[in-house]
From TrEMBL:
GO terms for molecular function: monooxygenase activity. PANTHER family: CHITIN-BINDING TYPE-4 DOMAIN-CONTAINING PROTEIN (PTHR34823:SF1), GLCNAC-BINDING PROTEIN A (PTHR34823). Residues 10-205 form the Chitin-binding type-4 domain. This is Lytic polysaccharide monooxygenase.
Length: 209
């Protein structure tokens, strides 16, 4: 049994269904584990270091998640399952499995809803997506993702310690999806914290119609 304090972990997307939500439904993870898919916030950088300007007064990033472990925020325990390919999940479950797809239209507004068990002073949210021609038989790596976030939703107030009450985690927010994508893509959403070196990672499998 998990100790009660292990429940007090940070935040997750509850709508639409993320890979973490699917793993909870499959009995592979508890919700507290999906709330704490936490790793360095400077993705796609490889190493720790200052957060980019004009937000360099935010706490520096710890090392961002390693390739192959990005979707779990770098976690390599039970949470590593969210990084699994369909083949890896099929072996783990001992039955055929494919990550469920959320149907979307290119260029549509994509809305997400968060639940937070420990909100943090928030800089914002970064959205990444897989490249055209990415290989779903390989785990998500920097080479599988477009080199830059396709959208960033950041508070502009600096320094964070003078604006803490204003820098609130958003329970609902939205993004316009890329207009040029077709078929299956993975979106990585990072909730970026100003007063620590971390972000919290959530991932979605989308089917662009």
């Amino acid at each position: 049994m998990n100790k009660p304090q292990t429940q007090l972990k940070h935040g997750r997307v509850v709508s639409p269904s993320s890979r973490g939500s699917v793993a909870v439904d499959l009995g592979l993870l508890g919700t507290w584990q999906v709330n704490e898919m936490e790793g360095g916030k400077n993705l796609p950088a490889l190493g720790a270091g200052p957060f980019p300007a004009p937000y360099g007064s935010d706490e520096p990033s710890v090392a961002p998640p390693a390739d192959g472990h990005i979707l779990s925020g770098g976690k390599t325990d039970a949470r590593d399952c969210v990084n699994f390919t369909d083949e890896e999940m099929s072996k783990k479950l001992n039955r055929p499995f494919s990550w469920p797809l959320v149907n979307v239209e290119p260029g549509q507004v994509f809305r997400v809803q968060w639940v937070y068990s420990a909100p943090h002073v928030t800089r914002g949210y970064s959205w990444f997506i897989t490249k055209d021609g990415w290989d779903p038989k390989q785990r998500i790596s920097r080479a599988q993702l477009e080199p830059k976030a396709f959208y960033q939703d950041f508070y502009t107030q600096v320094p964070y310690h003078a604006h803490g009450p204003e820098l609130k985690a958003k329970t609902e927010h939205e993004v316009v999806l890329p207009k040029n994508k077709k078929g299956h893509h993975v979106v990585v959403l990072a909730w970026i914290v100003a007063n620590t070196g971390n972000a919290f990672y959530q991932a979605f499998d989308l089917d662009f119609k």
